[in-house]
Amino acid sequence: MSAIVAIVGRPNVGKSTFFNRLIQRREAIVDAVSGVTRDRHYGKTDWNGKEFSVIDTGGYVVGSDDVFEKEIDKQVELAIQESDAIIFMVDVETGVTGMDEDVAKLLRRVDKPVFLAINKVDNAMRQEDAVEFYSLGLGEYYTLSSINGSGTGELLDALVEILPEIVEEESSLPRFAVVGRPNAGKSSFINALIGEERYIVTDVAGTTRDSIDTKYNRFGFEFNLVDTAGIRRKAKVKEDLEFYSVMRSVRAIEHCDVCLLLLDATRGFDGQVENIFWLAARNNKGIVILVNKWDLVEHKETNTIKQYTQKIKKAIEPFTDVPILFISVLTKQRIFKAIETAVAVYQNRSKKIVTRKLNDTMLPLIESYSPPAYKGKYVKIKFCTQLPTSYPQFAFFCNLPQYVKDPYKRYLENKIRENFDFTGVPITVFMRKK
After folding, report:
1. Who wins on pLDDT, 327 or 243?
2. How far does the chain reach from its first CA to its final CA, in angstroms?
3. DSSP helix, strand, coil percent of the chain (3-state; round to 5)
4. 122/178 Cα distance (integer angstroms)
5. Number of helices and strands (H, E) in the chain?
6. What's the confidence (pLDDT) of residue 168?
7. How far apart are CA 147 and CA 169, in angstroms?
């Protein structure tokens, strides 16, 4: 679980460029979102060892001054509600505008940390021009250039220093979040499980506006079930309530143990569903994919499920060890199987492998297929252990950790999965110096 930082400001000041620079700072994060739609507007990054989520609040509708004022008020206020810190971005080229003053007026009234970031400052002359932004009444500012990255380090140093240390809540009950696109049947799924019409269900996408907890205690299972508002593409997040739902959905994914990713069988595993999948995976959450409305799929044949499964696994490579169930909330087909599977995935995520057993299994496999030699040097792995974290992470100790590349790490991960059941759970493999 991590803090949330919102980037606010008027259009065309460079918010998205700065956002992209943040989420691509580490190679792992770039790899993690490969194939994910580019219009994604939430991501994860870290600086100085502190991890946080970033929300790009771009895309304000600018019409008359009155329309702008309404839109900017809604967007910024929603960002303020859900975030732990705010980066207010302005443009040194245009100087202080009326729109900037509107945002600053709102930000001066909040009791959350606000960082004034003056973008496009890439020479000494512009450093001098930045002084006029003191007039916004937000105190000290940070000058930077989103395009070339200069100055971003100072801003991020100050930002992570004030971010709260968020510790995973110790709870005896696991938390399962039901996530997916709007109108995929998330609320109907929960209603079917708990046996009552707890949530409003309509054909209108986006009926659910908030993330709501429900305690489930039936058939020997006990956990908290979280219904989240649907996550949509940025271009479609126009009204303030939908923007709010997106922020709550991101927060719900971060706070849960297992994500039940519900998708509409008639629409398929599209780019936006894949986007949500990777958000959950990068947060190291357990994942169960539920293909809903299977009763509406026409012309089903013997191998239809097999083909559909293969398409999904192709889209989520290399993390394919994920349970995929075909359900119908309407007919209640396999919905309790979905819960059994989610509980099993939760247990897998909490599993601890005894160090001796791990070494007895893995070292002979490593000996039979060693890491390839690099520049004439041979890597010798002598020991491995599972790290004491809330999700599966493994450290392999060797003489030359820098020479072990990703393909071999994937081999180690696959062998761990073959010998110990970690279905539905992302695994992280570290190489460390012995």
Report:
1. 327
2. 30
3. 40, 20, 40
4. 45
5. 13, 15
6. 52
7. 38
pLDDT for position 224: 79
**pTM score:** 0.63
Q: Which residue has the higher pLDDT, 211 or 390?
A: 390
Report the C-alpha gap between 76 and 103 in whole angstroms: 7
The C-alpha atoms of residue 315 and residue 276 are separated, in whole angstroms, by 12
Helical H segments across 199-316, by residue range: 240-255, 271-282, 304-315
Average pLDDT estimate for 122-127: 78
C-alpha 214/C-alpha 291 separation (Å) is 22
Q: Please give the helix or strand (H or E) that residue 394 lies within, else none.
A: strand 393-398
324 DSSP β-pair partners? 289
Average pLDDT for the chain:
77
Contact between 271 and 181 under an 8 Å Cβ cutoff? The reply is: no
The token pair that represents 403 in the structure block: 């020479």
Distance between CA atoms of residues 80 and 255, nearest Å: 19
Give the tens place of pLDDT for each residue, 68-86: 555 555 666 766 777 888 9
**Torsion angles phi and psi, residue 26, rounded to 5:** -105, 140
CA distance 62 to 9: 12
Structure tokens at 251: 């927060």
What are the E-state strand segments in 138-294? 141-143, 175-180, 212-218, 221-227, 258-264, 286-292
From CA 55, how far away is CA 4, in angstroms rounded?
A: 7
Which residue in 248, 228, 225 sits closest to 342, CA to CA?
225
Q: 207 — phi, psi (to 5°)?
A: -60, -40
Q: How far, in Å, CA of 168 to CA of 166, rounded?
A: 7
224, β-bridge pairs: 175, 215
The amino acid sitting at 302 is: T
pLDDT in tens, 297-352: 776 677 788 888 888 888 888 888 899 999 888 888 888 898 889 999 999 999 99
Residues 119 and 87 sit within 8 Å (Cβ to Cβ) = no
Rg (CA), the chain: 24
CA torsion sign, 238 to 240 to 245 to 248?
Answer: positive
Residue type, 96: V
Distances in whole angstroms, Cα of residue 206 to Cα of each of 200, 228, 341, 343: 11, 10, 27, 27
